[in-house]
Each structure stands twice: as structure tokens, then as C-alpha cells.
Amino acid sequence: MITVLINQVAHPLPTSATLQDAIDAAGVKPPFAAAVNMQFVPRSAYAQHPLSANDQVELISPITGG
Q1: How do the pLDDT tens digits run along the chain, 66 residues long?
Q2: I need a surface site. Which of 29, 43, 50, 60 has the fewest CB within 10 A?
Q3: Are 45 and 18 in contact (CB under 8 A)?
């Protein structure tokens, strides 16, 4: 198991976890943008982007209003 921070909350994930696993663990629904360690990751790469212990994942939903 590894621990990653998802929106500043620690989550245990399997050692072989990908960004998609982190998204699933967080329960975030589209639309959102994802970054790992402050680097944007395109949606097409979520399932292939490996995570390491202590990675910081940010899942950012758009805010509407004016």
C-alpha cells in the first residue's frame, strides 16, 4: 500500500495505483481537471499515469457564477 494526498486528504491505495484509482477513491464526478504534483494530466492518460507514495493529486472542478 502507498499513501497519496488527494485534495490534501491522505488516501491509502495499492502499490500499483494509477491516477484513475485515485479518482475512483475520491469519488469525484466529471467535469474536473487532474494534476499530480502540480503537473496537469490529460484525461486520456488517467489510467496509465502511475502514482508513487506521497504524490499529491489535485482534482479540480470548475466553478460557475459571476
Answers
A1: 999 999 999 999 999 999 999 999 999 999 999 999 999 999 999 999 999 999 999 999 988 776
A2: 29
A3: no
